[in-house]
């Protein structure tokens, strides 16, 4: 459990200290709560001026599923760094190792707020496993089991 002096909410500037992603691929706007080694809840505010809506789809803008999965993965990476009590340096890379059981339940459109909840289910031999769910207004939009690993940039070309 977090000690009382550990901040449980992170704003965008704090998030940028933990994630190397930048616009247009930084997909976490705020962390609402987290518990070390267990769970995190974060949000992505989906706005019509995001570049991907120009082509997906001009007549009916919908957030691409792969970007919803990416937002969940970024949330998972945040939880991992917060759990380890460290911020990544320029040599740290977090990679997907696997995505299982991904299901898309509802479209995400401009004006929606994607609420992402990620739970660590296992951590062994450098592999982190998570269950992840993103919802809009209490309705599940996407759920998946994710696996990631942290590597140094020098080791990044090595297989997981």
TrEMBL record:
<dbReference type="GO" id="GO:0019171">
    <property type="term" value="F:(3R)-hydroxyacyl-[acyl-carrier-protein] dehydratase activity"/>
</dbReference>
<keyword id="KW-0444">Lipid biosynthesis</keyword>
<comment type="function">
    <text>Involved in unsaturated fatty acids biosynthesis. Catalyzes the dehydration of short chain beta-hydroxyacyl-ACPs and long chain saturated and unsaturated beta-hydroxyacyl-ACPs.</text>
</comment>
<dbReference type="InterPro" id="IPR029069">
    <property type="entry name" value="HotDog_dom_sf"/>
</dbReference>
<dbReference type="InterPro" id="IPR010084">
    <property type="entry name" value="FabZ"/>
</dbReference>
<keyword id="KW-0456">Lyase</keyword>
<keyword id="KW-0963">Cytoplasm</keyword>
<keyword id="KW-0443">Lipid metabolism</keyword>
<feature type="active site">
    <location>
        <position position="56"/>
    </location>
</feature>
<dbReference type="InterPro" id="IPR013114">
    <property type="entry name" value="FabA_FabZ"/>
</dbReference>
<dbReference type="Pfam" id="PF07977">
    <property type="entry name" value="FabA"/>
</dbReference>
<keyword id="KW-0441">Lipid A biosynthesis</keyword>
<comment type="similarity">
    <text>Belongs to the thioester dehydratase family. FabZ subfamily.</text>
</comment>
<protein>
    <recommendedName>
        <fullName>3-hydroxyacyl-[acyl-carrier-protein] dehydratase FabZ</fullName>
        <ecNumber>4.2.1.59</ecNumber>
    </recommendedName>
</protein>
């Amino acid at each position: 459990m977090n000690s009382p002096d550990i901040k449980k909410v992170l704003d965008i500037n704090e998030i940028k200290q933990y994630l190397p992603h930048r616009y247009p691929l930084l997909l976490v706007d705020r962390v609402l709560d987290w518990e070390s080694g267990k769970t995190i809840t974060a949000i992505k505010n989906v706005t019509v001026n995001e570049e991907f809506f120009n082509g997906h789809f001009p007549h009916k803008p919908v957030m691409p599923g792969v970007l919803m999965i990416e937002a969940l993965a970024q949330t998972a990476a945040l939880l991992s760094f917060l759990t380890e009590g460290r911020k990544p340096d320029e040599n740290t890379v977090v990679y997907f190792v696997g995505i299982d059981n991904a299901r898309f339940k509802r479209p995400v459109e401009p004006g929606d707020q994607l609420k992402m909840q990620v739970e660590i289910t296992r951590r062994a031999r450098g592999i982190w496993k998570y269950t992840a769910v993103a919802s809009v207004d209490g309705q599940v939009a996407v759920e998946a089991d994710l696996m990631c690993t942290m590597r140094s940039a020098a080791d990044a070309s090595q297989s997981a």
